[in-house]
Amino acid sequence: MVELLNLLASTSGYLYFQCPSLRQYAIEKWGLPEYTAADMVTVARKSLEIPELLSTLQRGQTSLSKLRRICSVITLKDKAEWLDLAEKGTNRDIEKAVAAARPQPVDESLNYKDDNLSELRVGLNEETRKNLERIRDLLSQKNGRAVTLSECLEQMTKIVLEKMDPLKKAERATKRRAAKCEKLGTCQIRKFIRARRKLPARVEHAINLRDQAQCAHVNHQGQRCPNRRWLHRHHLKPVSMGGDDGVANLRSLCSGHHRLVHFQEKENLS
Ligand SMILES: [Zn+2]
Ligand SMILES: [Zn+2]
Predict the structure, then answer these.
(1) pLDDT tens by residue, 43-80
(2) What are the boundaries of each domain within the chain?
(3) Relative to the alpha carbon of 261, which ligand is closest?
(4) Alpha-carbon gap, residue 36 to 228, rounded angstroms
(5) CB 194 within 8 A of CB 245
(6) C-alpha to C-alpha distances, 200 to 150, 163, 180, nearest whole angstrom
């Protein structure tokens, strides 16, 4: 299976099966649990760089989970030592060696304590720690009492979202424009300057509002992709075929589905 995934990774063959990623392929087509799929994909992808990973697995001298552990540290230079350890060492030996090679101070986690309370665990570097302490000082000063770290985080998340979330920006801009139009009585239609890549803020906002800043891809089961990261703007009618940068011709797609859609277009043409 890992060998097949390796092949699919090198050829992007999973796209033929309507899957936006290799991991999705392993989960959907083979019914693998998410963690097994993740292990297999990690080893399969790393094998493109270090084929000995795959051959070691094929010889049956080690397990998938052991190989997956060394994927984050193994390089072309030290592959012999790592593979040797994967064959002869116990899980614990490997874990220790990996930790020593790439110190990971804290395992991040975010777990529910109850419906409205979660516990967060993260590692911070010194600079971020100082920044956080500074923020805590500022907020304590402002509130006239010592605020908790959780209150700091609450404020920080609100401010970042207010500033960076394209959906919030779009909502704000639309409100502002409505207020301005009311004042002027009419909307001034600005001349549309066409530029590839950079879309006018108004178009960006309209797309974000319509697509809710989320991938708009809907699969065969009618489920919409939940991805809200790595969003691209896809032209329904390609620019090369006279498609424009209007809201109606643009669609939000995550990078995986964007790749998939272009792959399917190419397949349909050929
Ligand atoms: Zn596109
Ligand atoms: Zn998507």
Answers:
(1) 999 999 999 999 999 888 899 999 999 998 999 999 99
(2) 2-101, 192-269
(3) 1
(4) 24
(5) yes
(6) 37, 18, 18
| 252 CA from centroid of ligand 2 (Å) | 9
Separation of CA 218 and ligand 2 centre (Å): 8
> In a 3-state reduction of DSSP, which class is residue 250?
strand
pTM recorded for the entire structure: 0.54
3-class DSSP assignment, residue 217: coil
Low-confidence ranges of the chain (pLDDT < 50): 185-195
Rounded to the nearest 5°, which phi and psi values hold at 152? -60, -50
Ligand 2 centroid – CA 250 distance (Å): 15
- DSSP for 155-214, written as a single string: HHHHHHHHHH-HHHHHHHHHHHHHHHHHHHSSPPPPP----SS---HHHHHHHHHHHTTS
In this predicted model, what pLDDT tens digit does every residue of 68-117 receive, in sequence order? 999 989 999 999 999 999 999 999 999 999 988 876 667 889 999 999 99
CA 243 to centroid of ligand 2, rounded, Å: 22
- Give the residue carrying structure tokens 């490997």: 94
